[in-house]
Amino acid sequence: MGSVVVEQLTKNFSGVTVLQNINLDIKEGEFFALLGPSGCGKTTTMRCIAGFEKPSSGTIKIGDTNVNKLAPNQRNCGMVFQSYALFPHMNVFDNVAYSLNIKHLRKSNVFKKLGVYTRMLNSKIMKYPKDIEQKVMDILAYVELTDHAKKLTSELSGGQQQRVALARALVMEPDVLLMDEPLSNLDLKLRHTMRNTIRKIQQDLKITTIFVTHDQEEAMSMADRVAVMKDGEILQIGTPTDLYSNPKTPFIADFVGTSNIMPGTVLNRENGMTTIQIGNQQIKSTLATELQEVQVVIRPENINVLDEKEADYDNAFEGIIQVATYLGSTVRYDVKVGEHELVVDTTYESGDSILSTGASVKLSVSPERVLLI
Ligand SMILES: Nc1ncnc2c1ncn2[C@@H]1O[C@H](COP(=O)(O)OP(=O)(O)O)[C@@H](O)[C@H]1O
Ligand SMILES: [Mg+2]
């Protein structure tokens, strides 16, 4: 029912290619994020799936149906936008009931009188059929807006407006829920709460969801799988842990989480260990590579600050602390090692001392944690 398959999707705007050979295979019930910097083509991909944009080439399937020729309202997709796109002159209930009512009117052969009904809706004298009323109230209860049903949407906070938008999409029981940067207008704290709300609702309803965001933390914390996009192309698709621990390109290593990325030259591979020259230092990795010139990627939390008395390690380096940033449960150090400045995250427990700027430290990283791309 709600799977989404995109094959070789390409989109040009006046001769400029903004999407190139996009392939997606989104499973029914999956929470799938499209992640990438602004302008990379996330919204255009979404609009092609929803039917608001016509692909230049390629096919889009929802369930078993090729939807290329179907109008947006025949695709049974629910959409939630960054801007909420609510009707400001209608109350919460009417906003949520609107599309449901139109659908009901279309079905019940009074579509010809739709203009009359819309005027009635707008003039607030509309009486809804009982089942619509019940359905709307159920969904409002679900997003915890029962008490606000009669308020104008302009009287609500950003988070409440976003929940109205969500309710309005969900009440139509879409096969696919499409969300385009839905949290970007909310403040940080609310964004975190709404992440949990959306994820919980998605899991409850098991509704196939495509979630567009430029915020890697959002994508990684919410989605089952993430597609990373850049310049109209998909660079990598994987689970959040996949992408984090096995980025295929330096762009992804940098965009998904924080990384130390250094160019190096492979010297040799012996006994299951690759030795790489970085500047005047050598580092070992358990990974094999066919490349001669590589990017060495190390996550900040995989670098250890050693005690003086600790024994020798495979990859041990001397460094000088440049900046120490206390972040509550962690301390982030910027450490100068040779010509590179490395970001190092250490866990912090109360009572621990924090190294100060200018202090010499010894760092180590396990060869298993040295990625080569
Ligand atoms: N209707 C349009 N006409 C011309 N160019 C467009 C149109 N819509 C989007 N674009 C261009 O397509 C590219 C991708 O845009 P978009 O899909 O909105 O990116 P994102 O959502 O990732 O920020 C951008 O360069 C944008 O300027
Ligand atoms: Mg966009």
Please provide a written account of the structure.
With 373 residues, this protein is α+β, with helices and mostly antiparallel strands. It folds into three domains: 1-76 and 174-257, Rossmann fold (3-Layer(aba) Sandwich); 89-166, no CATH class; 258-372, OB fold (Dihydrolipoamide Acetyltransferase, E2P) (Beta Barrel), CATH 2.40.50.100. Helix content is 26%, strand content 35%. It has nine helices and 20 strands. The protein has helices spanning 42-50, 92-107, 114-122, 130-142, 158-170, 188-205, 216-222, 240-245, 250-255, and strands at 4-13, 16-26, 31-35, 57-62, 65-66, 77-81, 176-180, 208-213, 225-230, 233-238, 260-270, 273-278, 281-285, 293-298, 303-306, 316-326, 330-337, 340-347, 360-365, 371-372. Strands 6-7-8-3-9-10 form a six-stranded mixed sheet, with helices on both faces. It has a five-stranded antiparallel sheet with strand order 13-12-11-14-20. A five-stranded antiparallel sheet has the order 15-19-16-17-18, with no helix packed on it. Strand 12 and strand 13 form a beta hairpin. The longest helix has 18 residues, at 188-205. It is elongated, with a radius of gyration of 26 Å. It starts with a strand and ends with a strand. The relative contact order is 0.12. The model has no long low-confidence stretch (mean pLDDT 91). The chain binds adenosine-5'-diphosphate (ADP) and magnesium ion. Magnesium ion binds next to helix 1.
